[in-house]
Amino acid sequence: MENNILGKVVIITGASSGMGEAAAKHLSALGATVVLGARRTDRIERLAMEIQDNGGNALAVAVDVTQREQVKKLVDTAVEKFGSIDVILNNAGIMPLSTMDSLHVDEWDKMIDVNIKGVLNGIAAVLPYMKEQKSGQIINTSSVAGHKVFNGSAVYSATKYAVRALTEGLRMEVKPYNIRTTIVCPGAVRTELLEQITDVNVRQANEAYVGAVGISPDSFARVVAFAISQPEDVDINEIIFRPTSQE
Ligand code: NDP
C-alpha cells in the first residue's frame, strides 16, 4: 500500500531539536523531502546532511517564526527548490512555564509570539500556494495543555488552546481548496522544551515529572506520519497522545 508520504514536500518548523527533528528523520525515511526551519542553523544544517547521507532529501533554511517575512521566505524557498509544498508542520514552540503572579510578562509575550503568531505566519505563507494547488495539509502542534490547564501553564495553555481554535476555524474555511488540517496534541515528551523555564521550582517539578513519565519524540513522528499517510480524502483533524503513565 502506498504511504502517501513518498515524494511529498514537508516543511517543518522547530526542526533543530526534539519532536521536529524526530519528525524530519522519520518522514524523510518514508520518502518525504523535508525542509527544515529553525534559528539554530548549525543544527538544521547538520540534520540535513545526516538525512542526505542516509539517502534522503533535505534542505535547511534559517527562520525565526515570529518574523513573517522570514517564514514567507522559508516557504518561497521550498517552492522554488522543489516545485510545490504539500505539508507544513507548524511545530516551533516555547514553554517558559511560570505562575502568573510572578509576572514574567516578557515570557508571556514570547510565548504568544512564537506559539500563536509563529503558527499564523506559517499558515499565511503556505495558504496562497495550497489554494492555487488545490491541495495541501497544515499540521499544527498544540498540546495536552491545549485541552487542560496545569499549575503554571496558564499562558502556555492559552497559546495552545489558541492553536486548536485557529486550526479548527481554518479547517472549515479551506474545504473548497481540498486542504487538510491536523492538530497534534502531545503529552509529556522528553525534549529540550523545559530548558527555557526560568522559574526554578516550576522547572524542577516539570523535569521530575517528564523525567518520570516522558516518552520519546519518535512518538510524535509516528503520529504525524499517520496523519499525512491517510488517503487525500481522509483528514485526521486532531490527535491527542500521552505517555501511558501520564494522568
Ligand atoms: P524543543 O525545545 O526540543 O524544540 C522546540 C523547537 O522550536 C526548536 O527546534 C526551536 O529551534 C524551535 N523554535 C523555538 N522558537 C523559535 C523561533 N522563534 N523561530 C523558529 N523556531 C523556534 O521542544 P519540543 O520538541 O518539545 O517542542 C516542539 C513543539 O511541541 C512545541 O510547539 C511545544 O510547545 C510542543 N509540545 C511539546 C511537548 C513536550 O512534552 N515536549 C508536549 C506538548 C507540546 P531554534 O531554537 O533552533 O530556533
TrEMBL record:
A Pfam family this chain is assigned to: adh_short
MF annotations from Gene Ontology: oxidoreductase activity, acting on the CH-OH group of donors, NAD or NADP as acceptor
Membrane keyword on record: no
Residues of the Ketoreductase domain: 8-192
InterPro entries per record: KR_dom, NAD(P)-bd_dom_sf, Sc_DH/Rdtase_CS, SDR_fam
UniProtKB keywords: Oxidoreductase
Record-given protein name: NADP-dependent 3-hydroxy acid dehydrogenase YdfG
Source organism of this protein record: Cnuella takakiae
Classification lineage: Bacteria, Pseudomonadati, Bacteroidota, Chitinophagia, Chitinophagales
